[in-house]
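User: I'm writing a short report section on ligand binding and want a predicted complex to refer to. Could you take this sequence and zinc ion and write out the structure as tokens? A short remark afterwards would be nice.
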Amino acid sequence: MGYIQRAAEKLERLKSGQNINILAIETSCDETSCAVVRNGREALSNVISTQIEVHKKYGGVVPEIASRKHIELIDYVVDESIKEAKVQLKSIDAIAVTMGPGLVGALLVGVSHAKAMAFALEVPLVGVHHIEGHICANYVQHKCMEPPFVCLVASGGHSHLVHVMDYGGYRILGKTRDDAAGEAFDKVARALGLGYPGGPLVEKEAQKGDPEAVDFPRTYLEPGSLDFSFSGLKTAVLNYLNVCRQRGEQVNTADVAASFQNAVVEVLVNKTMTAATKCGAEVVALAGGVASNDRLRKEFESRCADEGFLLKYPSKLLCTDNAAMIGTAGYYRLRRGLLSPMTLNAAASMEIDSY
Ligand code: KG4
Ligand code: ZN
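Assistant: Sure. The structure tokens for the complex follow:
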């Protein structure tokens, strides 16, 4: 019996079976990660090897270097993940992998490794959308959480507002028209000389500053729009710094960081609350690297409490890139009988699809 028949047989067990172990791989950017996820909710392991130190000296991720590092690390990370999960290879029921969007060379390392493992173990393979993975990080954190809810996904590459109507039922309410929220944090951090990755460094600096010190613009776009735009805010920060420097004025880095963060948080929170109200949602969820920002979390906590929404967000580890979230997203796809062919390819950009 060939691979396709074996995988199809195993998919049948997976659709209704108990104790389903999915091995998941994530290599879309600068984290090499592998996890073993049981029944879509329990991360038996979630090994993350970050390349931050490698890319730091360039001030951002260098795609070519990221791909090479993934190749160096993937075997080790997968082995660690299996050991930590205390499972045997023969009890892995399927392989899930991020297929896009992301850096295509980096994605290809994960996709190739996943295909090889699925073929060798004769188990189903499933390609996962990275943003769907971020949303599903909430399911790993909150074991009883179920759709529907409205989710803000704010990461380095994406700012999306998604109405999650069901497992696999996604309606995009809005997204960024230019820079993503995390990208704006990274660019402002660089301009302030804080380093990479920018988000946590801006947040730390902002703790010492006055969020009202500089009145940076908030972009809401046309009335009713749930799209985002952060490039105007980023440019306003750069212009402010240039003017200060030209005038020979000392820049208060902490005030600039706090005022910038305040502007990003205000727009993210206001648009998300409008989206939740429009959809009649009861639950607001956060996801993506920017969702690990404490100022953002606090603002959401107070607004959700005032306006009667239940707020959910993953731990900081599950907000940034990790493979457990991919395992969960893959689990729900496989439960619906969706598996990917061995011709699965990586895609630098792709829309999130409902199933
Ligand atoms: O989700 P993620 O790990 O990777 C992508 O899919 O892009 O998000 C990384 C992004 C980076 O832009 C980083 O600066 C931002 O999330 N980030 C933060 C914080 N931690 C990470 N932004 C604001 N505050 C933070 N604490
Ligand atoms: Zn991500």
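A remark for your report: Strands lie at 21-26, 31-38, 42-50, 94-100, 125-129, 149-154, 159-166, 169-175, 283-287, 310-312. The chain has two domains: 3-137+319-335, 148-314.
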